[in-house]
Amino acid sequence: MEQMSVIGEDSVSSMHDRVQSLKEQHIQIDAKLRQEEARPLPDSLTIATLKRQKLAIKDEIAQLSDG
User: 26, 58 in Cβ contact below 8 A?
Assistant: First the structure.
């Protein structure tokens, strides 16, 4: 019985670490996005790609936080 609680705690810790990692990635991508948008001639494909990446990360964070 004690082993199950330890596994559960490890799982929660691992999930928390994953969420933190995703949040850091989200911040980094947001910085790249702002940098690209500030350019005199921003690349619309790069902007679209970065926005998709941010959305995918946001969705994964939401799934991990809800579940």
Answer: yes
In whole angstroms, what is the distance from residue 27 CA to residue 53 CA? 11
Tell me the backbone φ, ψ of residue 41, rounded to 5 degrees: -130, 80
Q: In this predicted model, what pLDDT tens digit does every residue of 5-64 receive, in sequence order?
A: 455 677 788 999 999 999 999 999 999 999 999 999 999 999 999 999 999 999 999 999
CA distances, 35 to each of 18, 24, 31, 54 (Å): 26, 17, 6, 15
Distance of CA 51 to the CA centre of its chain: 12
The pLDDT assigned to 4 comes to 47
